[in-house]
Amino acid sequence: MNYLQFDRTCAQAISLAENSHNLIAVFDAAGCLRYANEAFRAAYFIEKDENPLWCEMMRRNFDRRQGIVIRTGDFDAWMTATQSRRGKTGFRAFEADLHDGRWLWMTETAQANGWMLCIANDITSLRADERSLRQDRDFAIRASETDDLTGIANRRFVMERLDDLLAAHSPVTRRALGGCLAVLDIDNFKYINDRFGHHVGDVVLRNFARKILANVRLTDCFGRVSGEEFALVMPSADGREATLIIERMLAVIRETAPLEEMPAFRYSFSAGIAFALEGDTRSDLYRRADQALYAAKMSGRNRVEVDAR
């Protein structure tokens, strides 16, 4: 195909998208809208030359009761739960309804670099009772993947993403791969619970989850795996990049004051990073990350250590 044919093909593709009744949009790795056809912009009330962040678009629609129906009394909690799953798998499909009465079948296709293609088809003509059953199923699936206390991904969802990372490589030789696991643990959490009570401990856990999630890339998966221990799966990060990400998170938490009644209260966390080796099992990778976490704790806490292998 020569350049002229290529240009004509691209122009035809854009024309088809623009005139489609389906909702079509493309978001970059930061969640910024890069392209949306007329149908998508009309459904989400987005001006032609406007390119909002996905989270801003959803908050505005929620506040104005327009666009996608978001069934929650706590938008921030809904956003936390949604962002902990959105873009973490290569493909996701679900149903949603619009305030104008339409019912949509929505798909999200994510690339390894974090860019995402969103397409929605109008399925309003399907029977209402069938839609209700499928929506109940979707709610049940989301609940099974969400940590009750913090609203972020739970151990099950994170471990599935860790399996995805390892399954992408053939266990032939034990050489270093792209991608890593970081295990994060809140420092002196037992003391916090004993000194201030479990209610304060829960506040700290929820604060930590939201602060860290706000600094997680779309392609990475962050979740609570047990107690005060959390995991971050980074499928494409190299050593320097992963360490910089965790160090930025450490700085954010150091400056966090989670308790309004105790503005001087601060807390910290420690982290261990291990990189995937060919032939690794889930247990192998988690054990090495946990050992690196232990080294961070023994070195004074409030820091990150990287497994040397």
- Tally the structural domains: 2
CATH class of the largest domain: Alpha Beta
- Strands of the biggest beta sheet: in what spatial order? 2-1-5-4-3
Mean pLDDT: 89
Query: Per DSSP, what share of the residues sits in E-state strands of 2 or more residues?
Result: 15-25%
- Counting H and I runs of at least 4 residues, what is the number of helices? 10
Helix content: 40-55%
Looking at the structure, what is the overall shape? globular
Q: Cα distance, first to last residue?
A: 46 Å
SSE series: HEEHHHEEEHHEHHEEHEHE
Task: Supply the CATH superfamily name of the largest domain.
Answer: Reverse transcriptase/Diguanylate cyclase domain
Structural class: alpha+beta
Low-confidence stretches: 172-176
Mind describing the biggest β-sheet?
Answer: 5 strands, antiparallel
Describe the protein.
Helix content is 42%, strand content 21%. The protein is α+β, with helices and mostly antiparallel strands. It has two domains: 3-144, PAS domain (Beta-Lactamase, 2-Layer Sandwich), CATH 3.30.450; 155-306, Alpha-Beta Plaits (2-Layer Sandwich), CATH 3.30.70. The protein has a five-stranded antiparallel sheet with strand order 2-1-5-4-3. Strands 7-8-6-9-10 form a five-stranded mixed sheet, sandwiched between helices. Helix 7 (189-196) packs across helix 8. It is globular and about 60 Å long. The termini are far apart. The model is unreliable at 172-176 (pLDDT under 50).
